[in-house]
Amino acid sequence: MAHLKAPIARPVKQSYDVIVIGAGAAGMMCAATAGQRGRKVLLVDHAEKLAEKIRISGGGRCNFTNRRVAADNYICRNPHFVRSALSRYTAADFIELVQRHGIDFHERDWGQLFCDDSAQQIIDMLQAECSDGGVDWAMPAKVLDVSRTDADSERFIVDTSIGRFSAHSLVIATGGLSIPKIGASPLGYRIAEQFGLAVVAPRPALVPLTLPPETLSRLAPLAGISLEVEAHCRGPVFREAALVTHRGLSGPSILQVSSYWQAQAYEDADWAPVTLDLLPGVDAEAWLLAHAAERTLLANLLSERLPRRFAHAWCELHGWTRPMNEFRHADLRSIAATLSGWALTPSGTQGYAKAEVTLGGVDTHALSSRTMEARAVPGLYFVGEVMDVTGHLGGYNFQWAWSSGVACGQAA
Ligand code: FDA
């Protein structure tokens, strides 16, 4: 498809039906939907470049949705909230849109769908959909203030660096805090608080974990080694790769479980560690006991199923550096239990600079799950990642942007 011109433009009107702040995934989807219903829509964004987060997503190929999307792919303090929007605008609906725009795509593990060519195609598609809806753009434009006229006229006023605009409906689509260098900001949370809505404290999620010095000193020299594990922390079990880094652990299984590790911040209970099964699908106890009489080092035996350098470092970390026949059976049972459930207490995360998403956000208890409108503030809506809805890795965060954007665009 022809590459469209950047939307950087000054709007001609001052009065709109709908103003959307944030021209990312959810904001463009919402603006296009509302515009195509005949609403006069203005999209406002402070970035110089359109939708940078989409452009860098999925390693530049945008994992735009997933074949299997369900409510339990999301973390939200209001667990049923996502159901309505996800069921009314599904992955199949978005796939149909992508096909209509002639974008080729492919499926990877776990139903993840990626563009064959480039994430830019998704940006171009959303921009074209906005054009079809006659959407106006104010970009780049800094938002200076948001206010509401008196209750009788019920209009929102948005003061920006390029002028004052007003609308009956205001949609906040400013995303989360991850990757601040490409335009992430807390404006959406501030606007929610300004209108009396609660915000669940944001935290980096889908993020590499850091390890305490005593563990890191053994593992950091192995940076780059990857192994398949089952990772778990008070939530689902994720069987995917874990990657040793200079600061701790990363890789898909660790990113997935990091969101659940972080989510414990909202509970009163003590923090559970992250647990890794290093030999998924293997009966570790039976395997070790079957080799109990051998003179081979434990680390050498483990090297049959784990990367060799990792097996040796792991045994040194635990002080298990003897041959198999020098361990008592009780020791081997305890080693097997550690192999199947290695409990690690991270020292923290690598923060928003490396996080794919933000956990927490505008508390959905105050929003309509059908329209995304704040119940106590008619005309004020929130869509996408700015809300307390965090998807698993695998295209689920974009699907939430599309589904919540459409739900709102049909109502605003
Ligand atoms: P998004 O962040 O897309 O848009 C927010 C917009 O608001 C931006 O354009 C920003 O400039 C604007 N804005 C912010 N503050 C503003 C202010 N003060 N004034 C005006 N405008 C403001 N998800 C997935 O499903 N599949 C994937 O492959 C990936 N890959 C991926 C890679 C990387 C590196 C990251 C960081 C993230 C992903 N994600 C992902 C997550 C996904 O990108 C994210 O969940 C969606 O982009 C969220 O869409 P939103 O529209 O809510 O926010």
UniProtKB/TrEMBL annotation:
Keywords (alphabetical) are:
FAD, Flavoprotein
Q: Where is the RsdA/BaiN/AoA(So)-like Rossmann fold-like domain?
A: 17-410
Cofactor (UniProt): FAD
One Pfam family cited in the UniProt record for this chain: HI0933_like_1st
Would I find Membrane among this entry's keywords?
Answer: no
Domain annotation RsdA/BaiN/AoA(So)-like insert: ranges: 203-357
Q: Which InterPro entries match?
A: BaiN-like, BaiN-like_dom_sf, FAD/NAD-bd_sf, RsdA/BaiN/AoA(So)-like_dom, RsdA/BaiN/AoA(So)_Rossmann
Does Flavoprotein appear among the keywords? yes
Q: What is this protein called?
A: Aminoacetone oxidase family FAD-binding enzyme
- Its source organism is Thauera propionica
Q: What is the lineage of its organism?
A: Bacteria, Pseudomonadati, Pseudomonadota, Betaproteobacteria, Rhodocyclales
